[in-house]
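User: Please predict the structure of the protein below. I'd like the answer in structure-token form so I can feed it into my own downstream comparison script.

Assistant: Understood. Taking the following sequence of 542 residues as input:
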Amino acid sequence: MVVPELRPWRAARPHVVRFASAVRPRLTRAAETVRPRLARIAAATAPRFARPDRPGSPQAARGARPGTWLFTATAGTAGLALAAGVVTAAGPWDSSGQRTAERDRAVALQAARGTDHGGVRANAGTPPRGPRAAPPAASVLTGLGGTATTVKSAPGGKALGAVLDPLLSSPALGRHAAAVLDVATGEQLYGTGSADALTPASTTKIATAVAALSAMGADHRLTTRAVYEPDTKEVVLVGGGDPTLTARKKAGDLASLRDLAERTAAALAGQGVREVTLSYDTTLYQGATIHPIGINPNIAAVTPLMADEARTDDSTSGPAARIADPAADAARKFGDLLTEHGVKATPPGPSKATTRASTLATVSSPPLAALVERMLTNSDNDLAEALARHTALAAGEKPDFAGGGAAITARLKQLGLPVKGADVKDGSGLDRRGRLTAGLLTALLAKAGDPAHPELRPVLTGLPVAGFTGTLTGRYAEGAAGVVRAKTGTLTGVNTLAGTVVDTSGRLLAFAFLANDTTNPTAAQGALDKAATALAACGCRL
């Protein structure tokens, strides 16, 4: 009798296959661990369950307790339980298992030192834990569960066009451009207007991420300092451009303003100082602090000193009301914390630390790799503008909006990327005057997967996962949930999407879809999601 395949299973089968591929290494290790024990048990029990007429036969007599098959079934059940536990423990951030599998493989290959995607707090006097080795970029080029010898050829351009052209021709997308690129080879497989420079919105953050990582390295950290001017008994809180500096009690892996105050007070007590004049230094940045978009809940004033991105609530991402003067607010909180530790401080005012000042204490951010992931996953505008200014500082450019844009463009050009037509106005993409091409965005993603540039890998690992993380959490409830990984972009009249998919042939593809002059954001977003879903479901070989 032939049992027809159930429709739900047909829909779920690709996800199950990916799941199985991701957990296979763990199950193999588990099986190797328990195999000797099962063998001993089987050897001990086999004589009792052998049939009398067939000496040594593994077949049990009717009514007897099951033998080897029981242990096989038990091991299989345990394996499934282990797999479920692994995925549950990993959480939605690693829902496909790809990230964990890549790390495991990197450890097996004894990969070189790289980025730290988790980490612990890095504070003064306590050297940060050595960053976890990053998996080599080559490990993702063949997609989930594939190898260099098993992955099929890249999709054909005509076949891709037959699938994507009707979807991208949707009236909801207005004026649009698109590109699809094979990450393993760098070959553009599909393009329509791929060299046209359009407003990219927040997909600009992909360019910011690549430039920042290239300029400073994945291990770079942003440091906030407290220094002491002995002549004036002045403590100066020096902003290091870390918008993730937190004043909350539970700091996690972020730099803690509370820890900085405690260590500063201890250092002052060691010098017999119990009363100080408090100042703060924001001279690391130059230029306007208000983004060209104006005062907006999507971004705080851009200053090198702030606590919790100047949010007035307990949120850590998304729009929120912001404090008008983030630097003064952070300094006031620092002064209150000093008082709690026995050091009386005056109300803070702006100043500049001199070369005579001695460092009392410092706290440092998570490594740049982790900051880039947070920026991309949550579309964090405050982090994006901070990283643009740090890229400008690394390049010797003026650390303002224009300097950040110039430094990003110059760094991308230095990497050999196609920057013709690009005009980077900021790090976040909030400035609608910015321009990028679909071809450049896919090239950026491919460069992040280049084995020669492992420092860029956080660009890929930081992309939101469809249906699970960041700005894609509420999208792709059906179809490509867990498969599409992409950065979103949304402004009035602008909807964009750029990221990666592993198609049904196992190829890792980078894609970029840009739509300008859209009039219905919901319809435009839906059209982009349908195109990405179709790309993931397509082998598309002639």
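That's the full token string. The longest helix spans residues 7-49.
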